[in-house]
Amino acid sequence: MPLDRPAPRGKEGGWWEDADIMRLLAISDIHDNVEAVRRLRELEANRFDAVVTAGDLGNRAACDILGIMETFACPLLYVLGNHDYDIEYEALLQSTAVHIHNKATVINGYCIA
């Protein structure tokens, strides 16, 4: 299976339809920009196997951002960044998101670490 070629957007038929692939939505460096995350959520359908937030959500809006990202119909994984030093961890613990720093998790047979 030639995975070195990207799947053409808007095209049907081809090697990618039968490929055993994982679809990730990855975001990072949001820096408290809740409006950008809301807009992203409006534009994206629930067609992912997992959503990954890779740090720097922002101290003030991290819980709001994770809450928006949790509306996708798939697991939400996150790590915190250097701009996330003052996040209220108690609020994060109430989230269904999975903190994957120094951990591994398996989704659809794929290990994400």
Describe the structure.
- Strands 1-2-3-4 form a 4-stranded parallel β-sheet, with no helix packed on it. Strands 5-6 form a two-stranded antiparallel sheet.
- The protein is an alpha/beta fold and 113 residues long.
- Helices cover 24% and strands 19% of the residues.
- The model has no long low-confidence stretch (mean pLDDT 81).
- The radius of gyration is 16 Å and the shape is globular.
- Helix 2 runs parallel beside helix 3 (62-69).
- It has one domain (21-112): Purple Acid Phosphatase, chain A, domain 2.
- The chain is built from 4 helices and 6 strands.
Topology:
Layout: H1 15-18, E1 24-27, H2 34-43, E2 50-54, H3 62-69, E3 76-79, H4 89-93, E4 98-99, E5 105-107, E6 110-112
Parallel strand pairs: 1-2, 2-3, 3-4
Antiparallel strand pairs: 5-6
Helix pairs in contact: 2-3
Task: Give the beta-strand count.
Answer: 6
CATH hierarchy: architecture:
4-Layer Sandwich
Average pLDDT? 81
Query: Looking across the biggest beta sheet, what order are the strands in?
Result: 1-2-3-4
Structural class call reads alpha/beta
User: What is CATH's topology name?
Assistant: Purple Acid Phosphatase, chain A, domain 2
Shape: globular
> What's the CATH class label?
Alpha Beta
Q: Tell me the distance between the termini.
A: 25 Å
Indicate the radius of gyration in whole angstroms.
Answer: 16 Å
Beta-sheet strand percentage? 15-25%
> What's the structural domain tally?
1
CATH superfamily: Metallo-dependent phosphatases
Q: Uncertain regions: pLDDT < 50 for 5+ in a row?
A: none
Helix content: 10-25%
Order of helices and strands: HEHEHEHEEE
- Regarding quaternary structure, what we see is single chain
